[in-house]
Amino acid sequence: MHLYYKGEDDGMPTITYLYMRSAVEETMAVFDDTVKKIMKKDFRRWAGDSMVCKECDFRFYCRGK
What is the pLDDT along the chain (65 residues), one digit of tens a residue? Predict the structure, then answer.
């Protein structure tokens, strides 16, 4: 299984994982939670890494700067 990062400029834009149904379901739950927070405009968390923040699509809305 591969996870693709659309903003990767240096190196491989994918990470490869062994497929395990439980891991996929847990990851999907984390993504679902993140989407819910975005929909509620809850931007209280941030990466805390300026390199990650620099490329983030939500960097102009984030309170972590």
Answer: 887 877 767 777 888 888 888 988 998 898 899 899 889 988 777 777 778 888 888 778 776 54
Question: Which residue, among 58, 8, 7, 23, has the nearest Cα to 37 in the 3D structure?
Answer: 58
CA distances from 34 to 27, 38, 59 (A): 11, 6, 15
Exposure class string for 13-44: b at 16+ Cβ within 10 A, else e: eeeeeeeeeeeeeeeeeeeeeeeeeeeeeeee
pTM above 0.85, yes or no: no
